[in-house]
Amino acid sequence: MVSQVGEDHSLRRRDFINIAAVSFAGVGAAAVVLPLVSQMSPSADVLALASTEVDISKIAPGQAIKTVWRKQPVFVRNLTPQEIAAANAVDVSTLRDPQTLAERTKPGKMNWLITMGVCTHLGCIPLGTGEGENRGPFGGYFCPCHGSAYDTAARIRQGPAPLNLQVPEYAFTSDTVVTIG
Amino acid sequence: MSFAWAKPYEPKTGLGRWFDERLPLPRLVYGAIGGGYPVPRNLNYWWNFGVAAGIFLTVQIVTGIVLAMHYYASADGAFNSIEHIMRDVNAGWWLRYAHMNGASFFFIVVYVHIFRGLFYGSYKAPRELVWMLGLVIYLLMMATAFMGYVLPWGQMSYWGAQVITGFFSAFPVVGEPIRVWLLGGYAPDQAALTRFFSLHYLLPFVIAAVTVLHIWALHIPGSNNPTGVDVKTEKDTLPFHPFYTAKDGWFAGALLFAYCVLTFFAPNYLGHPDNYIPANPLATPAHIVPEWYFWPFYAILRSFTVDVIIPAKLWGVTAMFGSILLLFFLPWLDKSPVRSGSYRPVFKRFFGLLILDVLVLGYVGGAPITPLNIALGQLATAYYFAHFLIILPLVSKFETPLPLPSSISESVLHGEKAEAAPIGQTKPAN
């Protein structure tokens, strides 16, 4: 740095020009990199799929459907009173991701369990929505990829998955229509 | 690499030495574009356009890779995917306009680069291969630009593909089968679009590879210079870095500024509005022209209207390809030992006429077909070939060149002495 500073310890004019020019080019480069990076984020048409409406009037207790939100499966399950009782009988403190069924449903709609159909381990779709599918040892969902088992509140009980099936943001727009997202 | 006094790379840190002993990549860069590459000290601004071409090749590759993430080469979906890029993709409008106008700027700087070589005799010994590799790059650029223009699958894309592949049908017997083979069908369709996309993505990397050869071949004799006189001593040169990196850097900034003005304020100025109409195989646009950088060649193609021995169509196509191919023979057509046009008074005048001629060809190629334009195009085409095949050999034979400076540094110092002369006195007092 000694050579950069003049005899009276002032910065030489040439050093100033050098630093200013390189900084200016640096700012320009950063301004170019920004859009080059952001172009890979979801585009406007992908974001436009951000919410979806589901008619739940035809789902009988004990049944579940798979629907799609943001190109990902969503499980909508109408729990039976037995399944609700089984979920509430569990001691929450023993769970890997402690949550009660009430925390995972909307008030007064405890029978409607709406979760993402994406295993929190590595993203496979767990079984258990279709007729006769393996629902695993806890009667909820069972992921065939690596053996994660979820209970009737879709909480992780066994296997490698770290978290309960995620509950998406949703609201009941009427008694029979749910808007997800 | 080129001169005895070129400074060898000396690693400054232990890590640098460790790396250099195992992979001398920093040494290569230092010797190619660093302090280890001596360059004639008298280069003027025309010598900035080589680096500028490299910059625009980079711009095209970067924006192109990014656009390919959003484009799909489907006859049904290509046009819509372009609109998707323009409207939905984050900064997509900018990426596409940057790519469109980047192509135009790439050609602008390459044309200046070529004409600089033509004026200062950069194609002459010992730089013949530099010149020929440059022409190969130019041909690859033309192929890449043409196929890129087809990708949006608008009206101009479609009919451009139809017309340009139609060139091949001019050749007797094998022509039509070749055209069908190139297109993978009888008219441009899915097969053609997919292969054009594949090649449009490939060729820029081939261009980059040939550019490496171009620069490698250049660095053996080193750069030509405005006097055309060979470098003799260390006094004639400056290290590339920091002298020419600074000059190229400043010039790149100025050029990118002009590029931004066009990209942001007149992005479609050099384009054609008909390409915003989806491709329609059943209707040709009334006035069909290629992109501006092909206009001179389009004019040559259209100048042949009469069958003479072989059909007019074949004449046109042959002349169009020939107009570029003859440039490969330029080092042997122009036999004058003097490189720089500055010292060739007769050549200089004809060079001016050549520029005018190419501009006229460019105008005719972009203009509608009228009897006057055709006549003008024929005259300009004839002159183009006459310039290279008749005028240049004759001029190099009969011209008396001006006396050359004995060295580069002398030519530079002479200028400084004149500058130092008192006002009103053109010659230095001594």
From TrEMBL, chain B:
Membrane topology: Multi-pass membrane protein
Residue span, Cytochrome b/b6 C-terminal region profile domain: 230-406
UniProt cofactor(s): heme b
Annotated CDD domains: cytochrome_b_C, Cytochrome_b_N
Annotated localization: Membrane
Cofactor: record remark: Binds 2 heme groups non-covalently.
Transmembrane segments: 45-73, 93-118, 130-151, 157-175, 196-217, 250-270, 282-300, 312-330, 350-369, 375-395
Keyword vocabulary terms for this entry: Electron transport, Heme, Iron, Membrane, Metal-binding, Respiratory chain, Transmembrane, Transmembrane helix, Transport
Predominant location category: membrane
Domain Cytochrome b/b6 N-terminal region profile residues, every copy: 15-227
InterPro entries registered for this protein in UniProt: Cyt_b/b6_C, Cyt_b/b6_C_sf, Cyt_b/b6_N, Cytb/b6-like_sf, Cytochrome_b, Cytochrome_b_C_euk/bac, Cytochrome_b_N_euk/bac, Di-haem_cyt_TM
Record's subunit section: The main subunits of complex b-c1 are: cytochrome b, cytochrome c1 and the Rieske protein.
Function: Component of the ubiquinol-cytochrome c reductase complex (complex III or cytochrome b-c1 complex), which is a respiratory chain that generates an electrochemical potential coupled to ATP synthesis.
Family affiliation: Belongs to the cytochrome b family.
Protein name per the record: Cytochrome b
Organism: Sphingomonas alba
